[in-house]
Amino acid sequence: DGYNAIQLASIENNLKISNVKKPQRKIFSSINSNPKRVLKEFRVLEENLLEIGAILDVSHFQKDQIVDVTGISIGKGFQGSMKRHNFKGGRASHGVSVSHRAHGSTGNSQDPGRVFKGKKMAGHMGAKKVTKQNLKIISVDQDNKLISIKGSVPGKKNTVVLIKDAIKKS
Prior knowledge:
elongated, two-stranded antiparallel sheet, about 170 residues, four-stranded antiparallel β-sheet, mainly beta, about 10% helix
């Protein structure tokens, strides 16, 4: 497609070949490999290209390296505006009856006569792709294939996260 890239596949998929999507089936059959569950593509420079079938592990990362970590944040379902957007909430007294946790006004009157897009209101919270940038690697355990990262990593336990070199810091 006019650029150099590496496609990384991980996590064995114990599925029948007929249950794998056709584009992925073609990719894995061309390299004589079993289908994997996760397939990601990274743009790289031409001198950093790897041969087909090369295995990457935690030894790619080093102690004190700065990385970006991407994952799917924990889903919270439908939440009100106080929890979702940290709104203050209404008064507890002086005639306020049922609008203690409501978000208040949603906009102007007849002009423009609609609610603007992106208005902060109640709705679905979480379960989005989130990238935490500039996290520091504390240690790399090659025996157990573990990476210790200082800071919060997005997502639930036992979910797939993407760790890559930081784009804002070298």
